[in-house]
């Protein structure tokens, strides 16, 4: 089965759209990123930049910064809702976040997680969830955690015209099966299983694959083995792209510090300091001023 899936609005002329994707100019290019763009980036050896987003305002800022893929991750459960795991997230919650992100993204491809319990039952349930996400949120793709066990559902969803991103390694929806947030697939048996799962997902029609918290050498081998792009989080530099939870990168969440997170800002300090100054000004009646009043 083809690993490249057209996104709505794409040219029907295969050659023209391949050429268009191949000369994709990078973050300053205002054209919509498609599944073909990502494939072309892999083939050109240009790394893909993906970040999570959960709301309109941040999606707009991240989109304008040139992020290729905005992932409406079910990590919203942790960073937006304050849950310990991603398991409580419902399809309605995810659709709401995806709608907000979609309205803020002009250029990025927007993909949304199918949350725990909305696709594992059978392929009919999985397809119904994917279709709700596409119709109600208007995203361009869905992401599903799991290997061969979900490959049949991936195939059915892709056949219905919905692009799918796979997700292997430390898949947070299986945290109670793993019992720990340690690196996955360090042993030969689990590494072999992951390689087989990766191939099965590609054959089922996934157009990209997220690899989370696995040894860099294994991620590199999978990346070389697959025709579709891999996007790593804690999976080393050889993946075709990288993804981080935006709250981690921005330094909004500092109680969670795995070594794969690089903080590009300390917005926790900026926000706390701004709020403290506001409290002081309100208490001192220094806000609002005359100019700020009617
Ligand atoms: O939910 C999420 O944010 C994710 C990324 C960490 C890949 O799945």
Structure description:
With 294 residues, this protein is an alpha/beta fold. It has 2 domains: 8-263, Phosphoenolpyruvate-binding domains (TIM Barrel, Alpha-Beta Barrel); 266-294. It is 43% helix and 13% strand. The chain has helices at 14-22, 35-44, 56-64, 76-79, 91-104, 123-137, 148-159, 175-178, 188-204, 216-225, 246-249, 267-283; strands at 48-52, 69-72, 109-113, 141-145, 164-169, 208-212, 230-233, 241-244. Strands 1-2-3-4-5-6-7-8 form an 8-stranded parallel barrel, surrounded by 7 helices. Strand 3, helix 6 (123-137) and strand 4 form a beta-alpha-beta unit. The longest helix has 17 residues, at 188-204. The radius of gyration is 20 Å and the shape is globular. The termini are far apart. Residues 52, 71, 73-75, 113, 210, 212, 233, 243, 245 line the site of 3-methyl-2-oxobutanoic acid.
Blueprint (SSEs and pairs):
Blueprint: H1 14-22, H2 35-44, E1 48-52, H3 56-64, E2 69-72, H4 76-79, H5 91-104, E3 109-113, H6 123-137, E4 141-145, H7 148-159, E5 164-169, H8 175-178, H9 188-204, E6 208-212, H10 216-225, E7 230-233, E8 241-244, H11 246-249, H12 267-283
What is the CATH topology classification name of the largest domain?
TIM Barrel
Task: Please state the second-level CATH architecture of the largest domain.
Answer: Alpha-Beta Barrel
**Stretches where pLDDT falls below 50 for ≥5 residues?**
1-12
Give the CATH level 1 class of the largest domain.
Alpha Beta
Give the CA-CA distance, first to last residue: 65 Å
Overall pLDDT confidence: 92
In what range is the share of β-strand residues? 5-15%
Shape field: globular
């Amino acid at each position: 089965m083809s690993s490249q899936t057209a996104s709505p609005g794409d040219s029907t002329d295969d050659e023209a759209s391949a050429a268009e994707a191949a000369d994709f100019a990078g973050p300053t290019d205002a054209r919509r990123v498609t599944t073909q763009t990502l494939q072309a980036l892999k083939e050109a050896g240009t790394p893909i930049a993906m970040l999570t987003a959960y709301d309109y305002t941040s999606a707009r800022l991240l989109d304008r910064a040139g992020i290729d893929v905005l992932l409406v991750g079910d990590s919203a459960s942790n960073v937006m809702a304050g849950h310990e795991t991603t398991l409580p997230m419902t399809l309605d919650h995810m659709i709401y976040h995806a709608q907000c992100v979609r309205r803020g993204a002009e250029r990025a491809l927007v993909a949304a997680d199918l949350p725990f319990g909305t696709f594992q039952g059978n392929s009919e349930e999985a397809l119904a969830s994917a279709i709700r996400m596409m119709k109600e949120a208007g995203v361009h793709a869905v992401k599903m955690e799991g290997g061969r066990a979900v490959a049949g559902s991936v195939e059915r969803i892709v056949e219905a015209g919905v692009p799918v991103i796979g997700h292997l390694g430390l898949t947070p929806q299986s945290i109670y099966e793993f019992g720990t947030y340690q690196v996955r697939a360090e042993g030969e048996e689990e590494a072999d299983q992951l390689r087989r799962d990766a191939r099965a997902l590609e054959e089922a029609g996934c157009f990209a694959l997220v690899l989370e918290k696995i040894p860099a050498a294994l991620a590199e081998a999978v990346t070389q083995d697959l025709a579709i792009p891999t996007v790593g989080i804690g999976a080393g530099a050889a993946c075709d792209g990288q993804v981080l939870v935006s709250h981690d990168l921005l330094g909004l969440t500092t109680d969670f510090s795995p070594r794969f997170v690089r903080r590009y800002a300390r917005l926790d300090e900026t926000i706390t300091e701004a709020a403290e100054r506001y409290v002081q000004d309100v208490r001192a009646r220094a806000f609002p001023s005359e100019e700020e009043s009617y």
